Hints:
Distance between the termini: 16 Å
Strand content: 5-15%
Structural class: alpha/beta
Number of helices: 7
Amino acid sequence: MFPNNKSATVSFTFDDGSRGHFDMAVPLLNEFGFKGTFFVIAGLTREQKIDPLMANRQRDWWAEVSWQEWRIAANQGHEIGNHSLTHPVLTHVREQQRLGAEVVDSARLIEEKIGQWPASFAYPYNKSSTDVRQLVLQHHHAVREERIRYGGPGFTLAKANRHIDRAIDKGIWIVPMIHGIGRGFDPLDPAVFRQHLQYIKDREAEVLVDTFGAVSAWVKRTSA
């Protein structure tokens, strides 16, 4: 059983800081009383929404949300996690100084901007190695490794809801990984997301929705 005697738990995670995360995902999660985890590319994130986007973003939708907005989300109880400094494939980074910057300097920047060291890390492109994982866990309490892709062609409300049904049936923790909302990489239709959140809300007696960091901390405590 999970906290509050729930049968299953869900941690919604969002990668790359695309505009829809703040404009659509945060309000939808708030509407249903849920909290999410937003993995930000710290070195590409601008300070204010009115500031120009960083010129060295490799994808149009990367780091569209500003620190100004992430502070608002954090103050509403959402988790701001670390998704590296510039979003490289970490296993391709050979220089230890640069690897340290991607993992540790990004965390310092998040602490500076948000006021709290990030508890969680998500590997860019979901690529890791023993050495990368070891470095990440030296500086973070949790790292996302198991995840379920939400969004993209062929992703439907029925498919999303089946993940919840399976989590309840198996008594497990699932971690949806979401990139675009409405646009961007593997976009998730916001209407589908809202209906999916309603489906979970209707099963609130059985399903806990909480941040990746919070659930990871609970798992660590109970398995120690």
